[in-house]
Design brief:
The chain has 265 residues and is mainly α. The chain contains 8 helices and no strands. Helix 1 packs antiparallel against helix 2, helix 1 packs across helix 3 and helix 3 packs antiparallel against helix 4. The protein is elongated.
Length: 265
Amino acid sequence: MNREKSAAAVPGRGKQRRRRLLLLSAAPVLVAVALAVKLLSVGYLGSEAAASFGRGDQAGTASAASGLDIANFVERHKAPFAAGDALVLSGDFTGARARFEASLADAPPADECKVRVNLVLSIERLADAAAAAADATAATNSAQSAADAARLYDDGLAVIRAAPPGCFSPDESKDNANGAEGEGDRLRGAEERLQSKAGKLGGAAPDAETGDVDKQPQPDPEPQQSQLDKLEESAKSAQRERNGGRQREEYLGNTDAGSGTDRPW
């Protein structure tokens, strides 16, 4: 009787072993399929994000960014970049800056300059908003807003100074993808604007090459209220020049100028 039971149990154990082997052999296949699906989805969602951004479709851009963020282990910089674009369309430049900074941390050399362009432009928008706030507030708050603007302009210049040399190379060959789409011109244009605006706030703009500030003779100490009045007047003067429209051509969202944000797709 025991021999009969043992003989009957052998086929059952064999079936279980075969099932385990099938499951183990199927695992690599499933991983390969998942990887292929992810690779295909990155291309599709990247194109969808670019198209949605071009249409000014904030919801579509955000949806594509969310899709890119799922199992984000392939071209990791594209998901935060698309999310930054979506935040730009919603007017949230603080959030956009954070997403572009995350994208820059993971960006390969071929896309680094494009990410830097958008990051700098987002910082510039934040600085311009702080400078404008300096005109619309009381003296004490105006001084704080002007200080915030100066700090942000300096942050933008730091991003430009940290760009690799390839961003500014005139060579547009396939071996120099960094500057092939005019990123260097946009960064140089942003550099000039940031330095000019920082100077109009009453402080010297850092030098683009060394980061040093030009040393100028310091005036004798004056009463605090007098200093605040001068700073407020300086901020108002800068705002009047901005209202002339000369610098606005390069800002984010200005499609007429043809220099909106880049997309690394």
